[in-house]
């Protein structure tokens, strides 16, 4: 058997006609930027999330960066980010001129540990960026309480958790603003790069839209030194075709995850832990194993794909040398980076494939 780490084929086969229909609609209209498709998707996605506003942007990194800019976070400010996340979270902070301050995760959930946030707050701290990593919501109640107490903005990084809930509420509705990525591999993916900001605050929404459109509020009138980051019509049309299927496809991921969690019985392997209050969407099913290298070899020999999220923590990346954070300073992020293995997880995995992965993990 050969099982890839991820495959879009089952989904694309099912949605083939819808996606081709979306292309035809845009191509027939011959209008590619800032049009009906963009408006329609923004409306549908805001409704899906339960927020008042949605602004389509070019990608997830821009969604986070523009949210921070709209909130006035900039040079001299500090922003709390988890030490275990994709580097885009920290880069968004860097791009606006602020400094990322890393807070360690809870090793069981991989998400930022709220109990460790306050000790990192200084007079310069302006915002907290919780990342709902691998598809599970962060523990939002304590995070929002800390933000309120210290008067900090909250920008949620929702790039891996479209549709995940915390205490029955969708992620993206807790903070001042939230950034989504529609990178093809995300739970809701475009056929290229795309992203969105959702918020309930009209001023933030207007400012994000202007910032991503050359800083202009109306054509050829420029209020800010903005950039070009817009959701194009084709990607918006593809996303509109896929959105109605998101919940069903997330449910399928939950079914696969439940099989993994019940079936994996090898004491060498730690399966992911889900908080009582959370309904995750399993962007990634990340196990931990102290003998990861051997397990990688075992998987490769048996035709099972895998990935590592993420092999080098941000504070040890070349680009963040300037932060001067030595190895050993963030031991939980380092532990995750050296033990985490992401196993196959995608819509359309067959029961036989899931069973094969479980059996091979138990044999290891
Ligand atoms: C994918 C991702 C991003 C960035 O999204 P892009 O669309 O690739 O720019 C940001 N944060 C996290 C946690 C991600 O996984």
From TrEMBL:
GO MF terms held by the record: pyridoxal phosphate binding; transaminase activity
Family matches, as Pfam families: DegT_DnrJ_EryC1
Record: active site: 186
Gene3D superfamilies reported in the protein's UniProt record: Aspartate Aminotransferase, domain 1 (3.90.1150.10), Type I PLP-dependent aspartate aminotransferase-like (Major domain) (3.40.640.10)
One Gene Ontology term from the biological process aspect of the record: polysaccharide biosynthetic process
Keyword Disulfide bond: no
Modified residues (N6-(pyridoxal phosphate)lysine): 186
Keywords from the named record: Pyridoxal phosphate
Family stated for the protein in its record: Belongs to the DegT/DnrJ/EryC1 family.
Record's protein name: dTDP-4-amino-4,6-dideoxygalactose transaminase
Taxonomic source organism: Succiniclasticum ruminis
């Amino acid at each position: 058997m050969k099982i890839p780490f991820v495959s879009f084929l089952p989904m694309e086969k099912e949605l083939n006609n819808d996606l081709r229909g979306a292309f035809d609609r845009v191509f027939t209209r011959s209008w590619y930027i800032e049009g009906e498709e963009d408006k329609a998707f923004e409306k549908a996605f805001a409704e899906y999330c339960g927020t008042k506003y949605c602004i389509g942007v070019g990608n997830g990194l821009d969604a986070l960066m523009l949210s921070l800019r709209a909130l006035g976070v900039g040079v001299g400010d500090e922003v709390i980010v988890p030490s275990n996340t994709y580097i885009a979270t920290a880069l968004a902070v860097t791009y606006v001129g602020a400094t990322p301050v890393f807070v360690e995760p809870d090793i069981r959930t991989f998400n930022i540990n709220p109990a460790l946030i306050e000790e990192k707050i200084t007079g310069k701290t302006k915002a907290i960026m919780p990342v709902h990593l691998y598809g599970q919501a962060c523990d939002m109640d304590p995070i929002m309480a800390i933000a309120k107490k210290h008067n900090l903005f909250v920008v949620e990084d929702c790039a891996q958790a479209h549709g995940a809930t915390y205490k029955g509420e969708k992620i993206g509705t807790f903070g001042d603003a939230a950034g989504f990525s529609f990178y093809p591999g995300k739970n809701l993916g475009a056929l290229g790069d795309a992203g969105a900001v959702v918020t309930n605050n009209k001023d933030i929404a207007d400012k994000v839209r202007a910032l991503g459109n050359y800083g202009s509020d109306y054509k050829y009138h420029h209020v800010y030194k903005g950039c070009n980051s817009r959701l194009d019509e084709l990607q918006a049309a593809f996303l509109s075709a896929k959105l109605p299927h998101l919940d069903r496809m997330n449910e399928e991921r939950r079914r696969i995850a439940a099989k993994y969690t019940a079936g994996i019985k090898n004491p060498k392997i730690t399966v992911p832990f889900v908080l009582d209050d959370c309904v995750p969407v399993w962007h990634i099913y990340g196990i931990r194993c102290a003998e990861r290298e051997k397990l990688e070899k075992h998987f490769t020999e048996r035709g099972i794909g895998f990935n590592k999220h993420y092999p080098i923590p941000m504070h040890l990346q070349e680009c963040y040398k300037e932060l001067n954070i030595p190895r050993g300073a963030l031991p939980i992020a380092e532990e995750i980076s050296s033990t985490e293995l992401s196993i196959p997880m995608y819509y359309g995995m067959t029961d036989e494939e899931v069973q094969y992965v479980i059996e091979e993990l138990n044999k290891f």
